[in-house]
Amino acid sequence: MQCKVLQLHDMYELQCCKLMLKRSRGLLNSYHASKLPIKGDMSNIITRQSFDISLKTHNNLSRINSLNYKVGSCWNSLPFAFKSDVHHQSFSLGTFTKRIKHRILSSYDVECTDPNCYTCKN
Q: How far is CA 60 from the centre of its chain?
């Protein structure tokens, strides 16, 4: 049985990616946008990393829990095609959400492997 419901940590990643979509479309306020600097904004050359977020060096717990690091880690792990499409504004927030959700759901096991699963018990 496949419910098409994301796990909690995957919901968090989806929200981080949606935040970056808003950042790339100029829908975030200037303070939050400044915390998510995109590498390509610094250069006119398009590379595989040009749509990534510049992550600052993190050497303590407060920086690892920062907006830049959390959102940047989720965003930078996406394939280049997703980030490139967002940069070129080729689809809506709803379409982007569906694409990311489908990508995450396709990585899940189709069959439940937990012998003590409450949902799958007959």
A: 23
